[in-house]
Write a sequence for this structure.
């Protein structure tokens, strides 16, 4: 039986705001970008990749934005 499946999202940091599921304009702004793949039921990170530089203080905010988007995708797919 299938117990869990991977959901993924991008996230970025634009003008001191953490954003999930970046569009082209947000990606082109040149801020740091993060790709996160999550096993939502177990809350385990399967992949975490980042392009660009980001201060350590902001890492939790951007990661949580991506995790929230993954949980939202999971909720829609489980309906």
């Amino acid at each position: 039986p299938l117990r869990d499946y991977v959901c993924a999202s991008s996230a970025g940091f634009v003008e001191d705001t953490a954003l999930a599921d970046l569009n082209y304009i947000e990606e082109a702004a040149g801020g740091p970008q993060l790709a996160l793949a999550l096993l939502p039921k177990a809350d385990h990170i399967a992949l975490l990749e980042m392009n660009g530089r980001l201060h350590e203080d902001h890492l939790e905010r951007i990661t949580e934005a991506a995790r929230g988007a993954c949980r939202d995708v999971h909720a829609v797919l489980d309906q």
Notes: The first helix runs from residue 24 to 28.
